[in-house]
Amino acid sequence: MSHPARAIANPSAEPASAPYGAARAAVMSPQGFDAAMREISSWPGYAPTPLLSLDGLAKNLGIGGLHYKDERGRFGLGSFKALGGAYAVANVLRDKVMRARGLSGVTSSELLSGVYRDVVGAATVTCATDGNHGRSVAWGAQLFGCRCVIYVHETVSQGRRDAIARYGAQVLEVKGNYDDAVRHAATTAAAEGWTVVSDTSYPGYRDIPLDVMHGYGVMAGEIEHQLQGAPAPTHVIVQAGVGAMAAAICASFWMHWRQDRPRFVVVEPGLADCIYRSVEQGQRVTVHGSLETVMAGLACGEVSELAWEILQGGVNACVAVDDAYALDAMRRLARPLAGDPPVVAGETGGAGLAALLAAMDHTDIRRTLALDANSRVMIMGSEGDTDPVIYREIVGADAAGVLG
Ligand SMILES: Cc1ncc(COP(=O)(O)O)c(C=O)c1O
After folding, report:
1. What residues does CATH 3.40.50.1100 cover in the chain?
2. What are the CB-based long-range contacts (under 8 Å, 24+) for 59-62?
3. Cα 110 to ligand 1 centroid, rounded to whole Å
4. pLDDT of 35-54, one tens digit each?
5. What's the CATH number for 5-76+213-403?
């Protein structure tokens, strides 16, 4: 059965031949990606996440191939977000130690060893979250030894709040939506002398969200390595909240594959389609209202300033989908077609497949995305069952049951 969905081609998309260029490299740079990869791959527990091939599903969808980057196992946190917030926390603390001690460099292993406990222990990091970013910041704070206060809006599930608190953070509720929580975190931090480790940037606040984005680039770097020797995907579909993950992947693939880079498609929930609307109007647009969606990680009304600087010309098309497609995607990934592995994808994690399912039902979307039988599509499994209770309710089995 068909559900509401729509797509738009980006009239400001750069042609395939356009170089990544100096202006964009001044935002997200190869050096930034390399530094994040060096640092994060040195942390205890680092391992590249799997890149799965879902050939049975690809055939069923009428496309040539389908890759799924499965972030469920990332550092035991359940989502790709482990890469960004924790990396930014490490850099904030490194910076504080260097300033306090007049040093020109501090390594992660020095931070982890506790030799700078006095400086690090006096710091507090904070942020607003719909779940996964806060979990990453809390984990980073615990790993490197500082205090952490995380703000959640009203609709963040208890399971996601508990998961953050398990890393020793104080979790506090703010009335309103995600954007209200972002503003509250910023005001409180200014009053208390805390550091905001946000995944979204706004005028005058760029360095920390840039670290977050460079951290996400690890995922893209792994994919580029995993596909070495194979042709580039023709399409990549990335789910977006504030667009930080989308921008990181777009920038990294652009630098890596240049004119052969995949067509870049952003997928968002119908009521939280801030990138879709920004692309439509050629400028950053804020979406107001409840932003209600089952795809909790995507319930954002404003695209990050930094992300927009990459996405404005880097996105080829946007898709906005009804929640029904997200639920369908989770269930299809959990009960694979013959030959495909079972996949545990949370409500936000299956959004790339949600866009493909919408494209199957709506020929205009398929046309806008330029999908056909030769398309080799990459989708980002950005999270696993980050709230296992909700996952079981939707899929009818828990992760062990699906994978077993
Ligand atoms: C699992 C998951 N996927 C995707 C996103 C979207 O990332 P961004 O806000 O950087 O667009 C989020 C954001 O919280 C998320 O939790």
Report:
1. 5-76+213-403, 82-198
2. 59/337, 60/337, 61/356, 61/357, 61/360, 62/360, 62/371, 62/372, 62/373
3. 30
4. 999 999 999 999 999 999 99
5. 3.40.50.1100
